[in-house]
Write a structure and sequence with these properties.
Layout (H helix, E strand, L loop, with lengths): L1 H6 L4 H17 L6 H14 L5 H16 L6 H14 L4 H13 L2 H6 L5 H13 L7 H15 L13 H6 L1 H14 L4 H13 L17 H12 L2 H6 L1 H13 L3 H12 L8 H14 L3 H18 L7 H13 L5 H9 L11 H12 L15 H15 L1 H18 L8 H10 L10 H19 L5 H21 L4 H14 L13 H16 L3 H6 L1 H13 L3 H17 L1 H4 L3 H11 L5 H8 L3 H5 L2 H9 L6 H14 L6 H11 L6 H8 L2 H6 L8 H10 L3 H17 L2 H15 L6 H17 L2 H4 L11 H7 L6 H33 L10 H8 L7 H7 L4 H8 L4 H11 L3 H14 L3 H13 L18 E4 L5 H13 L4 E4 L13 E6 L1 H5 L1 H13 L3 E5 L11 H8 L3 E3 L13 H10 L33 H5 L10 E2 L4 E4 L5 H13 L4 E2 L11 H11 L2 E6 L1 H5 L1 H12 L3 E6 L11 E2 L11 H14 L14 E2 L29 H5 L1
Parallel strand pairs: 1-2, 1-3, 3-4, 4-5, 7-8, 7-9, 9-10, 10-11
Antiparallel strand pairs: 6-12
Helix pairs in contact: 2-4, 3-4, 3-5, 4-6, 5-6, 5-8, 6-9, 8-11, 9-12, 11-12, 13-16, 15-16, 15-17, 16-18, 17-19, 18-20, 19-20, 20-22, 21-22, 21-23, 22-23, 22-24, 23-24, 24-26, 25-26, 25-27, 26-28, 27-28, 28-31, 30-31, 34-37, 36-38, 37-39, 41-43, 42-43, 42-44, 43-44, 44-46, 44-47, 47-63, ...
Length: about 1300
């Protein structure tokens, strides 16, 4: 048979053709005794054949089956040898396997080998051949067939299989051999899964002898084996405990060899499910060590630590492991991977687990590791690095709870914030989010000025960079938090250095370059920063220098909100000023214009309190806005009366002269429509100062006033107007007085009238009765009420009780006070114009004046000439302390603001003073004023005198203008066709009154305008035949209280009224100084006291006065230190000259205006200065004196300066009720003789005790000016000898000029 097999062809086609014959031959040939040769021949044929066919498979099966059927015996050694030979030499294909499987199964080799005696040697041969076999398959089918042979035929899990080699007794007896085979299978399991099946079979057959091997080299471990190990250990927790250290080692080896998938499986399947039973300390230490050893940190985080940490967090771990937990968190964080912070955070979040109080240094190191992540960037939508923010939050919480921790963390936090806020460095969003938390570690108490400055600088740099680039949300939030910490610092310390304020003001200003809102209408970064810091900073401003640093910022904010209404900016601006302005009003006072404009435009009352405070510092600015204030108070039916009533009361108390007729008209128009309440009552009460100052303003509204009092019988309102009612009734004609008394009685009998108000009305009537009892006699019955007893007794002349007499005396004292008010109010409307004030001059004027006051060829004098001022005026200003400011005052008083500014700029350019010009241009630019490039304006000084007349009197007015020009006065004609605004430049208005003028609308317009503008005026009565005094209205009030000059019928005569003209010149001289260079020969030196041709002493039309000359020879006319000032009205000038002569001869230093006409200042200025120096004002009282404005001004000035006033009553007048030296019945030729003169001297001795009247001292401390000599005018410049007793005048600018 073996020969037949050896002769078989390997060619498949030939074999197939011969198969029938071969088959018959095989079945017909008897089996030889040596069956070994047959199997060897068959094995050789199979091993040599590389392309088997189906007949060849049948051949093998047929041969083996015949041997079995014929019970051919063969030794076990031969079978094993053939089997080993095939295993060693064969390929891993189906053909070779078919031979092995057929021989092994049919000859039952397994059973033969385990039959007694056990053939260990043969089994070892099979095992060794298998170990040497390399399983490389060309197809999955071959692999599956070999796998089935080895795991189901040669070895098997089934205990019922008898033909297998892994019987329990074999494994037990051949433990060493099979353990070696097992180890080889384990090692080869990674190369081929067939070996893994063998491993499982052995572990299943006898697990106590063949446990899973975990000490294999890492390169020998396969996924299947790993899974096998996992399944094995998972089912046996004791196995895990026993081999835990080996498990950790294999995990370590897998990690270090970057086999993270296997390591992940071990960790997830074996470690994490058994945390409660394993050696947790060893696990934690192993993980900590791995974090420092690995190279692939991301894989360690994601595949090992992630799930492990998750299980650690939820496991019920004892606190003894807290330190290792923290170390693991630190080690994970040290990996510097994207996901590491999340796992570290989860470990650190464990509550009541760590002993934080003892971990200050550990937390400091943890913070540093969090900070080190600033070098990482992450582009994922979900940023694991944001978990750093949570870790820092944990650190911050502990730092805030435990002070020892906070102290350790503070310097680290400061250093980090300063670095992250560096605008030159760029960080990812997680850095800025983390930074927001780290900022919480910076204790406000520990911030010093140096750190504060660095943080402010960081904000400034970030702002500068962000203007030109993108500004991320997280970036802005971080810097917003910095600003919040700074704001807390500001609030805590309340006082910052000037350097800090300087930086903050610059920061705020630069933030204004940001839009307030982004494209989505969300607040911008700059907007938020200002919202956080602005008001806190305002609270820290404590001195004027620091406050001024913020003025440019606040001004710009104000400009922005004016152009674009932004509520938040408006509120910050308001609150900043409210906080800072109250503390430092000296700075806020420069912004009064803004506060008032805001209040008027927005009707916001926030500034009411501050405005009241600022008024005390700079009342003039408020007075400039009196029109707007009154309009505002009266708008919206008086809704704003309460808010600004305090401010209005203060203004009325200090400056009642600012109220003019149009304001009173507005007030009475509004109070008719506004319901009476406490606000309106307070507002009306504030008018008490006005009504006592300018009673005539209320004359045209008396009926409305009475109706208002009747409608609202308020005691407070009545008391406010009580004095005015007395003044009004006593100064009205009889019919008007009776009408007003009727109104009082109507109020008295009104059922709403309270008892207290009845008492006040009765007292008002008592004051009237004291002055003119006849007004109330016929109304006696109306006062028959309990409160009217005293008045009735007085009317009946039945005052008997001392108490009643005392009441009458008190009433008389009150009446005297009212009469003084009447006297004073006649001049007060002019006082504000007569005193030099620079309140209307722009702020920049002082800087320009400083430049132009420096003496040069092109100083302020050149500017004055360019503007058209005369040499006389320039010489007058040279005597002033600040001549340029005096020039500016004159210029801005007589011109509109824009016109004045533009003209100054052009004039300065014409004289080549571009330095001063630039100051004005820069100030105008800062104020938002637009200056035209082409200044075509050419404004000169306006004439100081305006002639108001009716057009029918043009011839007379022209003549008057010419004569005034001859005396040194320029005039401008002003009739009903002239624009009202041109009158602004007038120093005094001359009203030429006749019947046509009074009947014209122009008259009432002029009078109203004079009162509103508070311009002084002189009335010329030029028509004797006209009944010119108006019977009603405002003209009646004005003309009734004013003096006038009679020019007779001169407008129709050719002769000029020489007697009246000097009186006119004297009146004008009070307000305007003449230009002596333009006076003609006819009036040459009329203003200088030359006795021969002094026109004031000539009475050309009166023969009596021609011959009655007054000799003033050898009398001093100019005094250096006057003791007595003579105050009189023009009609009394002759008596005054005689009085002057007598008093001077007695040794008194007497000052008389007739001898003070020279100089550039007005007589009003001279009077004010002289009264201040003198001891006494001697007033010569006449009816005309009581009406003369300048006379009343002199009385008021003396009272204000608390100078003694000695009244001398020359003529009867009801307007003067105060006691006086009575001279009404004295000698008309020379009043100053006899007992009355002695009485006058007695009064003077009390006032001026240093002069002995019985020992006259001529020329004492006085001198006679050259101009007063009787010599020819050519000697006018003759120098007089200074009297030795006269005091020396200190060196002054005037002396330098001379």
């Amino acid at each position: 048979m073996d020969a037949i097999i050896q002769k078989l062809t390997h060619d498949n086609d030939l074999f197939n053709d011969q198969w029938q014959d071969t088959f018959k031959l095989i079945h017909g040939t008897p089996m030889t005794v040596n069956s070994k040769l047959i199997l060897n021949a068959l094995a050789d044929y199979v091993l040599e054949d590389s392309s088997p066919s189906i007949p060849k498979y049948i051949l093998i099966t047929t041969v083996v089956r015949r041997m079995i059927d014929e019970n051919v015996s063969i030794e076990s050694e031969a079978l094993v040898k053939i089997l080993v030979n095939v295993i060693n030499r064969s390929k891993t294909d189906e053909w070779s396997l078919h031979l092995l499987q057929t021989i092994y199964v049919n000859f039952q080799i397994g059973e033969q080998l385990i039959t007694d005696p056990l053939r260990n040697d043969l089994i070892e041969q099979i095992l060794r051949s298998l170990q040497q076999k390399t399983f490389v398959f060309t197809s999955d089918d071959d692999k599956q067939r070999w796998q089935a042979f080895l795991s189901h035929i040669l070895f098997s899990r089934s205990i019922h299989d008898h033909n297998i080699l892994n019987k329990q007794q074999i494994l037990t007896n051949m433990k060493t051999a099979f353990q070696q085979f097992y180890q080889h299978a384990v090692q080869q399991s990674g190369q081929c899964s067939i070996w893994m099946d063998i491993v499982r079979i052995f572990e299943t057959s006898l697990p106590e002898i063949y446990p899973p091997d975990i000490n294999l080299p890492i390169e020998c471990i396969s996924p299947d084996y790993v899974n096998h190990l996992i399944r094995t250990y998972k089912e046996n927790i004791d196995l895990i405990k026993t081999n835990f250290s080996q498990l950790l080692n294999i995990i370590e080896q897998l990690v270090l060899s970057n086999q993270y998938e296997y390591a992940h499986l071990f960790t997830m399947k074996l470690i994490t499910p058994n945390l409660s039973t394993i050696d947790l300390e060893s696990l934690l230490r192993k993980m900590i060590a791995l974090c420092a050893m690995v190279t692939d940190r991301d894989s360690l985080c994601t595949k090992i630590l992630g799930e492990l940490v998750s299980e650690l967090v939820i496991s019920n771990t004892m606190n003894i492991f807290a330190g290792l937990y923290f170390d693991l968190a630190m080690a994970i964080l040290q990996l510097h991977t994207i996901k590491a912070p999340r796992f570290s955070r989860d470990l650190l979040r464990l509550k009541d687990f760590y002993s934080w109080t003892e971990m200050a240094d550990s937390l400091a190191e943890l913070l540093k590791r969090c900070i080190s992540y600033d070098a990482l960037n992450n582009t994922e939508n979900f940023n694991n690095l944001d978990c750093l923010e949570d870790i820092v939050e944990i650190i911050v919480d502990k730092g805030q709870v435990y002070s020892n921790i906070g102290k350790v963390l503070y310097p680290i936090a400061v250093e980090t914030i300063l670095r992250w806020s560096n605008s030159d460095l760029h960080f990812d969003t997680h850095v800025y989010r983390t930074g927001k938390r780290i900022l919480d570690l910076i204790d406000v108490e520990q911030i010093n000025e140096e750190i504060c400055i660095k943080l402010i600088t960081a904000l400034q740099n970030r702002v500068n960079h962000s203007i030109n680039g993108e500004f991320t949300r997280d970036n802005s939030c971080f810097f917003t938090e910095i600003s919040s910490r700074l704001a807390m610092f500001f609030q805590k310390h309340q006082r910052l250095s000037t350097r800090v304020h300087s930086l903050l003001s610059a920061l705020f200003t630069s933030l204004l370059d940001y839009p307030s809102y982004d494209e989505d209408q969300n607040p911008s970064f700059g907007h938020i920063l200002m919202a956080i810091m602005t008001l806190r900073v305002a609270m820290t401003v404590c001195n004027e220098n620091d406050a001024r640093l913020y003025e440019p910022y606040l001004d710009r904010v104000y400009q922005m909100v004016q152009n674009d209404e932004q509520t938040s900016l408006y509120q910050w601006w308001i609150q900043f000023w409210l906080i800072m302005g109250v503390k430092i009003p000296s700075v806020a006072v420069n912004h009064i214009e803004q506060f008032l404009e805001h209040t008027f435009n927005t009707k916001d009352m926030d500034f009411c309190g501050l405005l009241t405070t600022l008024y005390q510092l700079h009342p003039e600015l408020f007075c400039q806005h009196i029109d707007k204030l009154v309009n505002f108070l009266l708008s919206d039916y008086g809704q704003h009366l309460m808010s600004l009533s305090c401010l209005f009361q203060l203004m009325m108390r200090d400056h009642p002269e600012r109220i003019i007729s149009k304001h009173i008209e507005q007030i009475f128009t509004v109070i008719e429509t506004v319901p009476f309440n406490s606000s309106l009552c307070a507002f009306i009460q504030s008018l008490s100062a006005v009504v006592n100052y300018y009673p005539y303003l209320f004359h045209s509204h008396r009926d409305k006033l009475f109706q208002f009092i009747i409608r609202t019988p308020s005691l407070l309102i009545y008391q406010c107007f009580q004095k005015y009612l007395v003044i009004s009734i006593l100064t009205s004609d009889k019919s008007k007085a009776n009408e007003q008394i009727d109104h009082l009685i109507e109020i008295l009998t009104n059922e709403k009238c309270s008892q207290q108000m009845q008492k006040e009305i009765v007292y008002t009537c008592l004051l009237i009765a004291l002055k003119d009892k006849r007004l109330l006699i016929d109304r006696r019955d109306d006062f028959v009420i309990p409160e009217g007893a005293l008045l009735l007794n007085y009317l009946d002349d039945t005052i008997v009780h001392e108490a009643e007499q005392a009441d009458i005396q008190r009433a008389q004292a009150d009446l005297k006070q009212i009469e003084i008010i009447v006297h004073q109010t006649r001049v007060k409307m002019h006082e504000n114009q007569l005193a030099i004030s620079y309140s209307d001059i722009p702020a920049w004027a002082s800087k320009v004046a400083e430049v132009l006051n420096r003496r040069s060829n092109k100083d302020w004098r050149s500017l004055a000439k360019q503007l058209g001022y005369s040499l006389t005026e320039i010489k007058h200003w040279m005597m002033k302390k600040d001549p340029c400011m005096a020039l500016f005052h004159e210029w801005f008083t007589t011109h509109e603001l824009d016109e004045a500014v533009f003209s100054l700029i052009k004039a300065l350019a014409n004289i080549d003073r571009h330095d001063a010009e630039q100051i004005i241009r820069q100030a105008a630019l800062e104020a938002g004023q637009v200056i035209p490039d082409d200044l075509s304006i050419d404004t000169k000084r306006r004439p100081p005198i305006y002639l108001s007349f009716h057009s029918s009197n043009i011839q007379f007015t022209t003549t008057l203008k010419e004569n005034l020009a001859n005396t040194g006065y320029l005039c401008q004609l002003y009739d009903e066709h002239t624009e009202l605004k041109t009158i602004r430049g007038a120093k005094v208005i001359i009203c030429c009154i006749d019947r046509f003028y009074i009947q014209s609308e122009h008259c009432s317009k002029m009078i109203k305008m004079l009162l509103d503008m508070k311009k002084p005026f002189i009335i010329l009565h030029i028509d004797e035949q006209a009944s010119w005094l108006p019977c009603e209205g405002i003209c009646q009030s004005v003309f009734h209280d004013s003096t006038y000059i009679k020019f007779g019928n001169s407008k129709n005569n050719e002769d000029w009224p020489e007697n009246s003209f000097p009186e006119l010149l004297a009146h004008i001289r009070y307000y305007v100084a003449p230009d002596c260079h333009t006076i003609t020969d006819k009036y040459h030196h009329w203003f200088v006291p030359r006795l021969n041709d002094l026109i004031f002493l000539k009475y050309l039309s009166n023969e009596h006065h021609k011959t009655d000359e007054i000799s003033l020879d050898n009398l001093p006319l100019v005094v250096l230190h006057p003791q007595i000032v003579l105050s009189y009205q023009w009609d009394s000038r002759r008596d005054v000259l005689l009085l002057y002569k007598h008093l001077t001869q007695l040794g008194y230093r007497v000052w008389l205006d007739l001898f003070q006409m020279a100089g550039g200042d007005t007589l009003v200025e001279k009077f004010d200065e002289t009264i201040q120096q003198a001891s006494c004002l001697l007033a010569c009282i006449t009816p005309a004196y009581m009406k003369a404005i300048h006379c009343q001004h002199q009385l008021s000035q003396a009272n204000m300066l608390q100078k003694s006033v000695l009244p001398v009553l020359l003529e009867e007048t009801a307007a003067w009720s105060v006691s006086a030296v009575d001279w009404r019945q004295s000698n008309e030729c020379d009043r100053w003789k006899g007992r009355q003169f002695e009485n006058l001297l007695a009064h003077l001795r009390k006032i001026v005790p240093t002069v002995q009247a019985d020992k006259p001292r001529h020329l004492l401390e006085m001198q006679r000016p050259v101009s007063a000599s009787r010599e020819h005018v050519d000697h006018i410049h003759q120098r007089s000898k200074r009297i030795s007793s006269a005091s020396l005048v200190p060196e002054s600018q005037a002396c330098s000029v001379m």
